[in-house]
Amino acid sequence: MARDYGGARGGQPWHATQPPYPGPPYPGPPYPGPQCPEQPYPGQRRPGQPYPQGQPYQGQSYQGRPDADQPHQPGYGPLRWDAPAAGPGAGSRADAKAVARRRRSRYLAVTLLALGAFGFLGSVAGLANQAMPRRFTASQQRQITDWEAGKRWRALPASAIFPALVSYPPPASLDDNPSLALSAQRIGIASQASCAAATDPTAAAALGRDGCTAMLRATYVDETDSYVVTVGAAVLPSAARAAAAARAIDAHDGSDGLGPTVHTVRFAGTLAAGFSNTRRQLSGVLSAGTYVVLYTVGYTDSRPKQPVSGDSYAHDEMMSAGAGTARAVLSVLAAPVPAPRCPGTPGC
Q: Do residue 164 and residue 228 come from a single domain?
């Protein structure tokens, strides 16, 4: 009767339930035949064997820091160094700093924009102010007017300041004829003099206190050849000071009609050749603009000074001749000055 001992029959494999051969291990030398080389697992590269091109790397990516002395090997994935993670709260602090920087930048930009806008508006206002006509204050207008009038005595010729013929109204005793007008003819013009040299001491003191700079004089004779008049124009720095000087001189007017006044100017060979200071009969003072005009009147003959207050007609006619001549001179020197205006151009 046949038995199955775990062998193979008819190419059938041994049953797994059969125990291994129970004998001792082989005591001899190792098997001398060729050994089976160790096969790498899929995706593993054997040392010295290049990684196949076109196949993705299936191993684990390198997470460490690359060494400076080991260059990157072709065929491998890019070496990547991951920085160490920041401590807790570092991201929040960085975000807060970034927000603060952005706020400061916006604040600086807004500030610069505002300053630029203010500067632009100021420039526009300045240009508009330059383009508009300039307006002077009342004080500035007076100063400009005084300057314009005060330069006339230098700009005008002497013959324009002292006209060759002046007209004046008759005295009140002859005003029954409105068409009647009297006149006086110029005899001569004196050289420019100082106020101290051309006036009496009291008048010179009053003019000097208010800044008199020059005295211009001329002599006239009325059309009847009866009266001679010397008129003097004093130059003052302003209208206010001219008016003050005139008031001071007029306050010292004598009871006989002769007060501190201008010195006479005589011209040889004329009716005014004998008109000296001792033959002055009456005097007066007027002011307009920056000028003070003093006048004195006497007879053309050799009559000495005598009171004329008792002869109303002679007194009025003398005063009419003197004041009429003084007003004619003032009408030239103190003619109205146009109101100062500026057209708006630079340096006007």
A: yes
**In terms of residue numbers, what domain contains 296?**
142-333
Strand residues in 174-278 grouped as ranges (E): 182-189, 214-222, 227-235
Global pTM? 0.60
Residue 294 forms beta bridges with which residues?
232, 285
pLDDT at residue 138 is higher than 90: no
My answer on whether 111 and 166 are in the same domain is no
Nearest residue to 333 (alpha-carbon basis) of 103, 114, 162, 108: 162
User: 324 and 229, same structural domain?
Assistant: yes
Contact 199, 169 (CB under 8 A): no
E-strand stretches of the chain: 165-168, 182-189, 214-222, 227-235, 282-288, 291-299
Instruction: Evaluate whether residue 88 is within a structural domain.
Output: no
Instruction: Classify the C-alpha dihedral 99-100-101-105 as positive or negative.
Output: positive
Q: What is the pLDDT of residue 5?
A: 47
What is the number of other CB atoms lying within 10 angstroms of the CB of residue 148?
15
